[in-house]
Write a structure and sequence with these properties.
It contains 50 helices and ten strands. The chain is mostly helical. Among the domains are: 175 residues, 3-Layer(aba) Sandwich (Rossmann fold), CATH 3.40.50.300; 66 residues; 96 residues, Orthogonal Bundle (Arc Repressor Mutant, subunit A); 170 residues, Tetratricopeptide repeat domain (Serine Threonine Protein Phosphatase 5, Tetratricopeptide repeat); 62 residues, Arc Repressor Mutant, subunit A, CATH 1.10.10.10. It is globular. It starts with 11 loop residues before the first helix and ends with a helix. The protein binds adenosine-5'-triphosphate (ATP) and magnesium ion. It comes from Streptomyces lincolnensis. It holds the Pfam family AAA_16. This is Putative regulatory protein.
Amino acid sequence: MRLVNVPLTGRQQQLAVLSEALAALRDGRGGCLIVEGPAGIGKSRLLTEAMAQARLLGLATAEATSAELDRIVPLHTLLTALRSGSPPVLDARASRELAGRLDNRYLVLDSLGEAVAEFAVHRPLVIAIDDAQWTDELSALAARILIPALSTSPVLWLLGWRPEAVSAPIAPVIATAVAHGATRLELQPLPEAGIAEFCRHALHAEPDPDLVELLGQSGGNPFLLEQLLHTLVEEGRIRVEDGTARTAGDQDAGMLLSPSSLAAISRQLTALGPLARRLLDTAAVLGRPFTLHEAAGLAGVPMSHLLEAVEETVRAGVLHPAGSELAFVHDLLRQGVYQMLAGPVRHALHREASVILRSQGSSALETAEHVLRSARKGDRHSVDLLAEAAQPLAERAPGTGAELLLHAVRLSADHDERRPQLASQAIRMLAEVGRLSDCHRLAEEILATGADPDAEAAIRLGVVDALKHAGRNAESAEAAEKALQQPGLSGANRALLLSVQAHALLYDGELSGLPRADAAAAEAIALGSAESAAPAVVFGRSARSVAAWARGDFTAAVDEARQAVRLAEEQGDSAARRHPALWLGRALGAQDRLAEAAAVLEAGQREARRLGTAWSYPLWHYHHAELAVAAGQLQDAATEAEAGSAVAEQMEVSALRVPLLCLSAEIALRCEGVQAARDLLDAARRLVESGVGLMPEDLAWPQAMLQVATGETAAAYATLADVYRALPDRQVLPARDPANGPALVRLALRAGRRPQAEAAAAAAAGLAGREGSTECAAAAAQHAEALLRGGRHGGRLLRDAVEKYRVAGLRPLALAAALEDAGQAAQSGGSVAQALADYREAAAGYEACGAVQDSERALRAVRALGARNAATAPAPKAGWAALTSAELRVARLVAEGLTNRAAAERLFLSPHTVDTHLRHVFAKLAVSSRVELTRLVVLHEG
Ligand SMILES: Nc1ncnc2c1ncn2[C@@H]1O[C@H](COP(=O)(O)OP(=O)(O)OP(=O)(O)O)[C@@H](O)[C@H]1O
Ligand SMILES: [Mg+2]
């Protein structure tokens, strides 16, 4: 009797979900589906069926199965997938080009994303990754970035994995995907009826109840079911008569199958001859499809001796040919064989494998896994190999690189002179992937055993950077202080430490940090210049620029940042990667040079993308958003802030989400209302509570404005009490927006805090009185003074302020606020007509900026005067008319068939901004694909 291949059994519901997703993809809608369940439950099988269906539907496919022993090679899984289809997403040339860019993982992923998006413009694409629990780190990062980035493209991701692999690089990616709407298909064991059906198909006979019960030992796991049936049939323990399958003789079921699959496998293997067993043992260690040549080398026998063994194992259904290679029929069989190897044998075989593969031309990277599984302490050769393998991973897959280096450190002899250097490299890589506690532990361990001053400095600097990167600014500043105490520290390292410390002090959550930050920065600049340490000078000048800006000295802020930019341009490289243009943009904005600031940011952002400096990506969006607020374009500002927050999440720099979420909250409060703002603030607060540092004003300001909006004036004042106290030495809020000056006065007055109102007005006057001050700063000072004075005089000052804002022609929201206050002054003075005119103009001004909530407040004031509002239709929230001009531009380009990146290049925006715009367009037009969008655009524009 022979077993017949069983058609897919008992997965109708899952198949229906998959079919639906494929049909949607054909209509241009992408998505992400996760197929999960334990080993042998049928994930691969389901994915195979889905891919066959995809091909029938004419969809393009790209597929790969990750292998346990490939997880060290960066991008292995995804590249395999993208080269697999016909035609493949990446042809040989594209793959080569991509491989050439591997030195910066974000640049590679950028090109990869563009290649996929471009491909999908012409043909919807299914990307299937099976056994994703073994996916290498860079492929996992790619999925993390590309799944959301391609969500508006016709790309469907199918990921199969075993969820018990909680520490796999893919695990957090899947969690995020699910949180963003990916569908989970959890495969359950087959029920009794399913087992019977399986059996019916396999034996072409109806199983009797005893047989079904016996097969129930498989727990409904199809793999075990198959193995069990195979064993029973091989051993002649199933009889088929008159179309019914029965068990033959006495069945000691307990003997057949222990709870693990091992027993089933071992029964199948014990029948094999010794050479066949040897072949399987070596094959299990190699861990992926292998050539006979490799196996013979490892088994230590001539190739010709193995031929018979190969036939035997193929006949037994354990191995099967895969192209020119051989593979296990199922990886579970391989794992079974592997687990049955005695420890020392396994060890020796891995060691042998590393030597043989290396001698056959495999790279250090490709053999590293064997070294990991076989090396012993003090083994110099292995330490060298791991160190060599880790080098190229620094930029490509730092988590994996760190893991190899950690092993190298552990394996190196205690007196090995390379230890500190290996450790400092490991610390850098651990920092990149946010593994702070491992960083600390390693640093402590190495420093305790002693290191020379340079190595010690590198280790300490690594820790300082790691903390800074994670947003733990106070701790970073403290660690820097400790590092600075180290005797024998070189000047260059000292300068670098000081520059990082200066930045950390700026964002350590304290209002009092400015002078210290400034002093550290000044020292970094002086020392860095003497030592020609350009990155330290650039970063130091950036910090000084921020400190000057926060003091309200915008001329100095521009000057410092400009010098930093010049030096970074001259020096390039790591100096350029400090991106001082970020702070130049902000300083220029504070001087009301909005267009110039936008140009600086745009050029800087392009440079950052060229260099692939991912940490900076969210910050460009932040500063763009701030400028858009200044220009009164709140929808665009919201889009930028949202894009920045999304990028920060994708790039795993969530510390930067804090200011972005706070800014989003501030904007949401003006546009959408209290609830939206509250949600965003809660998200920001959670991050702050987890230890992320910030400028205190970032969180306090939107929080206070929210309290004002809900009528909690005293609480709002309390939120900002310290900020008032820090005036006039620290003026972060007026630096961000001159209109914040009058707002501070207004709040203090309402809270009955006249001295603080006076302090705020004096601070605004101080800003206006500085050399190089702007028209808007003068208007703001007058506005603030007017509120303080009240009465007729105040009213006159307000008129002046309004005129000044008008003349400046910038900052329409500040103008509207002045008009609203002017309306109130007029109302108190009894000139109702004037008050009405002011309120109405304020409302229209707010409305034009998208500040719906502010506009409604002004209109309420109109109604309170007994007047009626001109019947203006509320701005539409959905439909074609609701699109902003930026959204319209994006929609048109996408309808022309451009990818997000191509559209971004045309519009001088970042692809993330385009992506966010496009999502808003989809939502407003209630479409979910580029195809539908194109149809609508054609309909509207002919
Ligand atoms: N629903 C099913 N109907 C019929 N056969 C099935 C079914 N599910 C799985 N099989 C068969 O059972 C075996 C194991 O399934 P599969 O390889 O898909 O498991 P898996 O979940 O991918 O396991 P792993 O986690 O080890 O990759 C395969 O031979 C497959 O063809
Ligand atoms: Mg599988």
